[in-house]
């Protein structure tokens, strides 16, 4: 038997911490459902060839073997590393029966063979929402999905979440207009701005044969940031003063469409959750498949954690095309891990029980159980003392668990003691109710 | 890219079916919490040497490899095949901080490399409850845990669940008394009674050198079944008339203790959920580690599915000893799969939305979104029509999804139509509420 020890990259929470995680998941689900997003759940495994389709991610995949095959993997199945790959397969499989546009949320664990570090795990929960259309998807859904996510995150006991948003059409139109031909490669370089700085990006772009004037222009574009549509004037100015290719009409049209999209997104997000969004034109998001709005969200004061939610608009969820959509994904475990470590939130107690019914002696256990059942019948989480020890010991039992009330059975009904204040009053198990904040464990800030 | 097709043994549900699964999980959680069982969540992986500790299960373990290691497994980690192994490790790791007796529920997926068949999957949800003590655990908790589970299963939209219960002390005392030395081996044979019949069991016992008189006695014991404590007289009679070993005082004492335990269990279970329990002395449960009450539960009319919930009392959760407990585990996916296939239950709709707010034209989308937000502010799941198509099309959109109400914005407030009855009435988005049964999708029987 191996020594018992935590595995790096596989976080687990104490019962009290798990209440925080459950609260986060439930609140996200609640807000998603309030906006019409129903939940699905997919299997944890996919054929490896599907998982490996995205070559960038391939290195992170866990494959499955069988112990009775001598530990040999047949490597045909692997654990999903995100919820997009299984969702795409789910939609492809059920395209004949799903109703489009199809809205879903999905909250499950994913696995990645990455080197564990702060906020980066090998097994973690993600919470995704997507809207997927059949053949077409109205642009206003890019705003709607962002609003749903902004509200869901706002419902959590964490500091304000700020969405940094951009639009791929804006970027592509601009890049093309100033003479960049391999837009995807240039985007991947700009995506490293925070890591390697403007000089590093310029060096990479030079290696891609991007003209110096274009590099200058797109680095200037990446500096533009605004909390409202004032970014439009800045982009327009930069566009007018940049050296453009001769035939830039199509690029300009794409740029204009992107500006409209980004304006609608920033205004829509800030309209729904004031101050939650900033147009940040450096947001590139390396993945090739985004084609419209892109989002990256950070917790204020915890930007060092990296993005806790990201996503974007894509042309097709399914390889063959025809399923345009927009989606966002929350790194639940990353967020919860920070909430716990930085003590952003805590649970008021570690157990569901609001009441411990004391047991006078073992012969009277049934009477105590009867009282517990009468409380439970009215939805009050209750447990019965496991032993008929002295009342002091039974109170200690409740105290150690954070159970706020102890019920002492008596001739008529009995008495209930708030063990925090020491107050003890006669009470009827068919009528007494704990004050609302004590009914269930709550998650509170700080 | 591989063809898209379901994987045998990895069930997935449609959005409407997933509502049934979610309902089952939530109801179990609700009843568990009402009785003081808080939830924990453990990582999906464990060191293989821990998983393989139980040699019987070893053949079913999925090991993890890494794709970048050429598909080779290092076979040091595997996916858990139940929730007991990770729970034992969790308790061992946290024995210094957990409060004992520790009650927990745990509802997660587990993986087994078994050949898939009806009710047997490779990836499935289990829902476990356990109470674990430190050094000791009062026997009445064997009744309590059974009662909690009986109530949790009773809360589900399924036919009555019947617990077949037995007691290992009763069986062991009896077996020893009639001259069986290797009780565990005999138990494993009796456990096959349904599969190989009394003659098959007798043959196996003969191979174990069990005397014919003993075989006769324990096969007679396995026939005893009663819905109340009337089994006691039958056991006593059989004991008195069986050929016993000369020095059977200790065995008789063990038998007597087991009879007390089983009496308390049957009476306790039937007291809490009338008719839910039957003392069934053929219930052996192959696993060696049970030492007191054992439980196997079946859905009435669906006995062919096999047990949907089982468990028992054990001397120690942790290999080193010192953590006696009692627990029960529900095969959630097995149960849900039957609920869906046999149409035992269905969801009243496939989406959370109770209301679709129609959009008059795209310019008026914001007004519709505002109405939706006013409804959501009062907890009414609402979505806005994705297009401003003709109202007929928008009604069709709602109809296809099962959204019961369509809201038509108007000068003053607007009107709401129940698209099932066709009734349409003026309504105020700050006051109107759908009738309670329509607020959320419900899971109904049949």
Briefly say what this structure is.
The structure is a homodimer of 446-residue chains. By secondary structure, chain A is α+β, with helices and mostly antiparallel strands.
Low-confidence stretches of chain A: none
Helical percentage of chain A: 25-40%
Number of domains of chain A: 2
Output the strand order for the largest sheet of chain A. 1-5-6-12-11-10-7-9-8
Oligomer: homodimer
| CATH class category label of the largest domain in chain A | Alpha Beta
Shape of chain A: elongated
N/C terminus separation of chain A = 40 Å
The count of DSSP E runs of length 2 or more, i.e. the number of strands of chain A, is 19
Rg from alpha-carbon coordinates of chain A:
27 Å
Q: Which strand-content bin applies to the residues of chain A?
A: 15-25%
The helix count of chain A comes to 14
CATH architecture of the largest domain in chain A: 2-Layer Sandwich
Helix- and strand-based class of chain A?
alpha+beta
Global mean pLDDT of chain A: 94
Question: Biggest interface: chains and residue counts?
Answer: A-B, 92 and 93 residues
């Amino acid at each position: 038997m191996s020594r018992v020890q935590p595995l790096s990259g596989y976080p687990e929470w104490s019962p009290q911490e798990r209440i925080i995680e459950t609260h986060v998941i439930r609140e996200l689900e609640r807000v998603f459902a309030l906006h019409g997003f129903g939940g699905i759940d997919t299997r944890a495994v996919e054929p490896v060839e599907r998982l490996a389709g995205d070559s960038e991610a391939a290195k992170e995949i866990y494959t499955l073997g069988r112990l009775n095959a001598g530990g040999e993997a047949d490597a045909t199945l692997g654990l999903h590393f995100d919820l997009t790959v299984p969702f795409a397969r789910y939609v492809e499989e059920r395209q004949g029966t799903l109703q489009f546009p199809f809205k879903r949320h999905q909250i499950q664990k994913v696995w990645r063979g990455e080197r564990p570090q702060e906020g980066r795990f090998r097994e973690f929960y993600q919470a995704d929402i997507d809207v997927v259309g059949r053949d077409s998807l109205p642009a206003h859904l890019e705003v709607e999905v962002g609003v749903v996510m902004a509200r869901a995150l706002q419902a959590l006991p964490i500091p304000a979440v700020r969405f940094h948003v951009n639009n791929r059409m804006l970027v592509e139109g601009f890049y093309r207009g100033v003479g960049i031909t391999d837009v995807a490669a240039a985007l991947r370089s700009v995506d490293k701005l925070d890591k390697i700085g403007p000089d590093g990006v310029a060096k990479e772009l030079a290696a891609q044969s991007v003209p110096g004037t274009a590099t200058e222009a797109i680095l200037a574009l990446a500096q533009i940031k605004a909390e409202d549509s004032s970014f439009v004037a800045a982009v327009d100015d930069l566009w007018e003063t940049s050296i453009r290719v001769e035939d830039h009409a199509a690029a300009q049209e794409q740029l204009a469409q992107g500006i409209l999209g980004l304006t609608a997104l920033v205004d829509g997000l800030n309209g729904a959750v004031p101050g939650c969004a900033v147009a940040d034109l450096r947001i590139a998001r390396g993945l090739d498949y985004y084609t419209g709005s892109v989002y990256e969200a950070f917790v204020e004061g915890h930007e060092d954690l990296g993005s806790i939610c990201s996503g974007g608009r894509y042309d097709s969820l399914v390889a063959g095309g025809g399923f345009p959509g927009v989606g966002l994904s929350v790194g639940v475990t990353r967020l919860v891990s920070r909430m716990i470590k930085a003590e952003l939130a805590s649970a008021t107690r570690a157990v569901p029980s609001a009441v411990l019914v004391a047991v006078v002696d073992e012969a009277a256990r049934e009477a105590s159980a009867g009282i517990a059942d009468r409380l439970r019948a009215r939805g009050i989480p209750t447990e019965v003392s496991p032993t008929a020890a002295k009342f002091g010991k039974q109170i200690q039992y409740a105290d150690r668990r954070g159970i706020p009330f102890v019920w002492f059975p008596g001739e008529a009904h009995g008495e209930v003691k708030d063990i925090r204040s020491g107050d003890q009053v006669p009470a009827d198990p068919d009528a007494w109710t704990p004050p609302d904040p004590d009914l269930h464990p709550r998650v509170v800030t700080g």
